[in-house]
């Protein structure tokens, strides 16, 4: 090899070494003072209303109605009477609706995740006639607004003689699962396609079938993606009002917290101390879920974004 060729190769290698990667450039931009200032401003604007809600929920009724929550800094006064009223008073009884929200949310998260993982695996690694057309149809279902699909779904329930079951939880589970499946299948399918085909082929050479490949290889690798979608679905179902109100038939026995809070805000719009306590009762569970699973959420968002 000539000296000129060696010099050229060294120069090219040096350029590749010194040239910053895309990740390094993004980190540099996000670490700039302006980006930090923007993050602080956004965090403040996002946190202040929540802090005001929390403080108001602990203030006495007269203080809430006569002054803003920020006056607590100069004249602090707190009580637990608001929470005692909304959780234990039979006129509010938010504890029952809190349990209803859990009963609605947990199956409405588990059912679509279970069905979506199986369906996504079939679309990603099984060959069958019409696979691509079906996947495009599933993807297209994300475009249809939920409000448009409610009337046909209600008609389907009526024709299947489910109308009399609107006092039960499972019509709400079915509705939430149906609305969540298109996005879940699309996200999990894209994540599965990032798994190297050589890994699947090696498992097949060792005699593994689809069941073993799915349970032993795919599920462990998909944990971040499943957790990320699970958080999205949990937050969506927990905070939902429309689906629970429509498919619950307005029956308070199967209504979640959101339905009860909406009713209270319409009938007791002057009881700000009770509404703030009730709102924070509804807020605390999704906040705990998000903070406790945040690392899985971030890993799920970044999964498959970088190759190599």
Give an account of the 3D structure.
The chain is an all-alpha fold. 74% of the residues lie in helices and 0% in strands. The protein contains 16 helices and no strands. Helix 7 packs across helix 9.
Keywords:
308 residues; mainly alpha; 0% strand; disordered N terminus
Overall strand count: 0
What fraction of residues sit in β-strands?
A: under 5%
Number of helical runs? 16
Query: Uncertain regions: pLDDT < 50 for 5+ in a row?
Result: 1-17, 304-308
Helix content: over 70%
Major beta sheet summary: none
Query: What structural class do you assign from the helix and strand content?
Result: mainly alpha
Shape assignment: globular
Q: What's the N-to-C terminus distance?
A: 31 Å
